[in-house]
Amino acid sequence: MNRKQAILGSVAFFFAAPFIVAGVIPALLTGWRFGGDASATLMTFGALLIFAGPAPIAPTQRLVVDGLYRHTRNPMYLAVVAIVLGQMLFFAQAVLLAYAVGIWLASFMFVVGYEEPALRRRFPNEYGAYFQAVPRWRPRFTPWRAHEQAPS
To answer: How many domains are contained in the chain?
Structure first.
C-alpha cells in the first residue's frame, strides 16, 4: 500500500467510524444540549478528553509497536471512548456514559474475538512479546520498547 492509498483509507475510515461513532450518534442522543449543571472543572476535563481522542489510522504492513502503541495495544478504540466520555462530561449528558460503555464492549468483543487472534497469526513472532508487555486497555506509564522482555 502506498502513502496516497493509506491517506485515503484513513480519511474513509474516519468518516465511517469515529465520525459516526463519536460524532453523529452522540449528537442524535443529546442534540448537543447541555444536560444538568456541569461544573467548569468537569467541562474542562471533558473538553480535554474530546481533543485528546482524535488519532490517525492507516493500514499497516508491519506490526506497529511505536507511538501510542508503546503504551497500550488499543489506542484507537480508547480514543473514541475518550471522546464520548469527554462529551458526556462536557454536556453533562448521562446517556453518553451508557453509549461509551457500549462502544467499549463492542470494541472489547472485536479485539478479543478477531483482532488479537488475527495479529497472532499475521505476526507470530513479534506479537507474543508485545501482547505480554503492553496492556490491552490500561496504558503503561513507561513506553515499551520492542527489545524489552515481557514480564514473567
So the answer is: 1
Give the CATH number, domain containing residue 52.
1.20.120.1630
Q: Mean of the pLDDT values across residues 106-135?
A: 93
Domain contains 142: no
Cα separation values, 132 from 25, 87, 93, 127, Å: 35, 33, 37, 9
**Residue 26 sits in which domain range?**
3-133
Sequence-ordered list of residues with C-beta below 8 angstroms from that of 18, at least 6 positions apart, any chain: 54, 79, 80, 83
* pLDDT confidence of residue 151: 55
- Considering the entire predicted model, what is its pTM? 0.73
Average pLDDT of the segment spanning 25-33: 88
Q: Under a CB-based contact definition with an 8 Å cutoff, are residues 92 and 44 in contact? A: no
Concatenate the DSSP letters of all residues of 35-76 into one string: -S---HHHHHHHHHHHHH--------SS---SGGGGT-S-HH
In a domain, 116, yes or no: yes
